[in-house]
Amino acid sequence: MFENLSDRLSGVLDKLNKQGALREEDISAALREVRLALLDADVALPVARDFIKRVGDKAVGQAVTKSVSPGQQVVKIVHDELIATLAGGDDLEKTAKDAKLAVDSPPAPVLMVGLQGSGKTTTTAKIAKRLTDRDRKRVLMASLDTRRPAAMEQLAILGTQIGVDTLPIQPGQDPVAIAKRAMTTARMGGYDVVMLDTAGRLHVDDELMNEVQAVRDATGPHETLLVVDSLTGQDAVNVAENFDGRVGITGVVLTRMDGDGRGGAALSMRAVTGKPIKLVGVGEKMDALEEFVPDRVAGRILGMGDIVGLVEKAQEQVEAEAAEKMARRMMKGRFDFNDLKGQLEQMISMGGMSGLMGMLPGVGKMQKQMDAAGMDDSILKRQIAIINSMTKDERKRPDLMAASRKKRIARGAGVEVSEINKLMKMHRQMADMMKKIGKKGGKGGLRGLMSMMGGGGMPPGAIPPGGASPMGAMPPGMPTGMPKGMTLPAGLSGLGKKK
Question: Using CA atoms in the order 370, 376, 382, 388, what is the torsion angle rounded to 10 degrees?
Fold first, then answer.
């Protein structure tokens, strides 16, 4: 997400940080570049203009010009104003509350609306899975799309895949009748949430709006979520305005954010419509759905990472029993190839190397260096293949690795012996690190683990000493690392439990 915008803004702010003192002309020149970066990211002109004015008013004040670290102070101002733009001027407590779905009074109807092709049906299933797995809600899904022949079957298939019930199909019913039947079934069956997937069109029209309004009036939804494709840019904002004006929406779900390097729709949506972005789709998998939290998103745009999001993602993937087992092994100084394989598989399940890089403070900029060095998830899969080519004894006892064994494993995995040597070096380094983690409680483990994922390590100088951000030491109040009192979960450092 936001790769292009992040690169542009980071480049502008880097220049400011390298200057000892800032003149008003320096700030004005930087803000012109920021404005161009926002417009290039397809941010709405009024939103970009307002953002630049707010930053400019604060950046040319006495607090910056006389600051010990003026460049860092400008970074903080940009960060704060990004949060304000994404939050629509609301405080973070209200914004965090807006991000939560109002599904506490069963059976709570959630009305899904949007244009055809926006990913509405898939998003319906993703939200249902999220509510089931994370919030322990009993969910019923119902397709109200009577015009698209395969729509109901598609939702039923997705329901089977994710283990969520779908309303049985009864041919001949109109959308309102289906919605009423879904609510009755939910009340009788003890369901907590009813996901109502409405039909879409290729464009906004009266017939579509009248149908959605009729379903809304019949069910009284707790949430009316508009699903829009982020890749449509400013058209997504226009669609949101139309639906809100005719139907009234409570929030927006942006799909395909993983493919949107610009992010203009996300940055413009709250400011233009006044409606919160509640969730974003970040992949095709059924669990590829994230909450849209403005301060975390702002941090990722500026390369400051999202440690809280990273920890939450790890907690979702790591089972408590496996975590405790790993913790006990590491406390005893044990870390074999089976353990390493488990760590690699958890890396992939959490979004792979690229997915995690953007969530680490000061590490997001390394993505291009990784790409240039040919470092991607294929490396992790190749390393897993090497371990799979070992015998059970070799996995448990790395000290058995003689030259003849390495040659046999290399043939089995289809790699060179040098790859085996790199993996063994990586294992030794991780084993040493895990022993330290066991003694220190997990601090610093993930950064070290990430630095070794390529076997030979990241490009020299990619991670600044001490884990500092590439933009320099962050000013007071900026997110620079692990929240106080929090340690990394087992999938990353080997310690911790799943909630």
Answer: 110
Cis peptide before 107 (omega within 30 of 0): yes
Give the Cα separation of 110 and 113 in Å (integer).
10
| Whole-number Å distance between alpha carbons of 17 and 78 | 13
Report pLDDT for 439: 59
pLDDT confidence tier of residue 398, bands split at 50, 70 and 90: confident
Which tens digit of pLDDT belongs to each residue from 141-175?
999 998 887 889 999 999 999 999 999 988 889 99
Residue range 337-360, pLDDT digits in tens: 888 887 787 777 666 655 555 555
For residue 491, pLDDT beyond 60: no
CB 102 within 8 A of CB 108: yes
Q: State the pLDDT at residue 77.
A: 81
Report the distance separating Cα 44 and Cα 54, nearest Å.
16
Superfamily name and number for 3-91: SRP54, nucleotide-binding domain (1.20.120.140)
Measured in whole angstroms, the distance separating CA 210 from the mean position of its chain's CA atoms is: 35
Domain boundaries, the chain: 3-91, 96-301, 307-493
Candidates 189, 185, 192; CA nearest to 169 is 185
For β-strands 277-281 and 251-255, DSSP reports them as parallel
The reported pLDDT for the residue numbered 212 is: 93
Q: Domain 96-301 sits in which CATH superfamily?
A: P-loop containing nucleotide triphosphate hydrolases (3.40.50.300)
CA distance 320 to 328: 12
The CATH class that applies to domain 307-493 reads mainly alpha
In sequence order, the 6+-apart residues with CB closer than 8 A to the CB of 102 are 108, 222, 223, 250
Q: How many CB atoms lie within 10 A of CB 444?
A: 17
Percent of the chain with pLDDT over 90: 22
Q: At what angle do helices 70-87 and 45-59 cross, to 10 degrees?
A: 140
Name residue 332's amino acid: K
